[in-house]
Structure formats: C-alpha cells, structure tokens
Amino acid sequence: MKITKTLTAMAVALAATTGTSAMALDELVVGYFMEWPTANQYAQHNKLYDEALGIPVKWVSFDAGTAMSAAMASGDVHISYSQGVTPFLVATAAGQDLQVIDIAETYSDNNNCVVRSSLEIDADNTNELKGKQVALPIGTAAHSDFLAQIGHFGLAESDFKIVDMTPVDSAAAFASGEFDMVCGWGGPLRRMKEHGNVLLSGPAKEAVSGVIYDVTSTPSSFAEANADVVTTFLKVTSEMNT
Predict the structure, then answer these.
(1) Which CATH superfamily is domain 109-209 in?
(2) Which terminus of the chain, N or C, has less C-beta within 10 A?
(3) Cα 110 to chain center, whole Å?
(4) Sequential pLDDT tens for the chain (242 residues)
(5) CA terminus-to-terminus distance, the chain
(6) Does an H or E element contain 219, and which?
(7) What is the pTM of this model?
C-alpha cells in the first residue's frame, strides 16, 4: 500500500482555512479499517491523537465502508479513516452530506476477486464463469472492481448469482466450500487466495480497474463545526506518513 503524503499535506492546509472549532467535544470517535497496516496506527496505539487534540479519541473498527457511512449518518462516528471511494459515493449519491478531507491510501492489488481453484478458470476461459455464484460486499470497492473485471472479459453482472456478504464472512464460507468466486480485500483476500486464483493482478488489473484508493471522510456539518479538530487530526496523520 502507498500512503499519499502530498494530498494529506494539502488537506491539512485546506482544513486550516475553514475556521476555528465551534463545538466543544468531550471525545472524538474515529472509524477505521483494521485490515490495513497504516502508519497512523502508531499514533493510534500511543495516543498521539489524544495528546494533540486534548481529548480522548475512541477508535471503532469496521469491515466495510458502507457501515462507516451508516455510523456517520447516525452520529456514532465523527471521522472515518480509510473509507472506500465507492461506499462514499454511494452514500453521497443517496443524499448523505459527507465530504472527503484526505486521501488515506491506495491499494489496487490488495483488493481483488478469487475464483475457486477446482473450477480451473483463469483469464483465458472466463466465459465459464457464467451462472456461477459470487459473494461480495455490494456498494464497495470490491464490488466496483468485480464489475470492471467482468466487463473487461465481456461478462455482465446478470451472468452471475450475486450474494451480498462481507469479505470476512465470504472468506470463511469460501474455505468451507461455498461459492465459486468471492471478492474482498486485506486479510480476508489473503485467506481467499488459499483456495483459489485471481483473474488479473498487477499492472494488468490496474489498467482494467484503475487505481483503487480510500479516503478520510466526515459529515460536512462536523467539519464545519470542528475545523480545529479536523485540522489537528490530519496534521497528526500527516506526521505519521512522513
């Protein structure tokens, strides 16, 4: 994975122009994706965010960006670190007032789909995937990647039987013999690969799916009312990435 340092610095500068904090917080709640070994986890573990902000920071783990959107909508989470672009766009398209305050990371090869080994299907005979059952988290980067890859091979979503499932659950189901194809990221993806193969990887996959990245997001109302908090959070994150 590659942390985008330049954009982090730009985000800090932009946040600094939005004004000062107007809402006193007793605690900052940050959603994070624990599958990624990101540099800011050092600051998380050593409470450097708490020290810089002057308030406790509660970290809540999620296994999908869609759940992060729901948590921000309910007010249970103030900032989501490393939310997938796809769930962010799905939420904003549905009317949720979120904004990107940073680019968290890129991870094109750490997001993929895996076909069961016993099917003996690879990039040369993908037509045999028609009618197969696929487990993937709908509305996420893994879903977008799946659509891009099957489109590249001349297939459509309607050619498959789709089951909406988190990567953690689908990896376990795949290991027990369920599903013909599964899509996911991080640790679950590594476990999926123990029982199957990917169709595309490296530059070939990136040429089809594009660069996959996560953002740091927050409700616009929170950013406007707590500009100092957002600025400090991004500043600490930037320091961990340098």
Answers:
(1) Periplasmic binding protein-like II (3.40.190.10)
(2) C
(3) 11
(4) 433 443 444 444 444 444 444 457 899 999 998 777 778 889 999 999 999 999 999 999 998 899 999 999 999 999 999 898 999 999 999 999 999 999 988 877 789 999 999 999 999 999 999 999 999 999 888 999 999 999 999 999 999 999 999 999 999 999 999 999 999 988 899 999 999 999 999 899 999 998 888 899 999 999 999 999 999 999 999 998 87
(5) 15
(6) strand 213-219
(7) 0.74
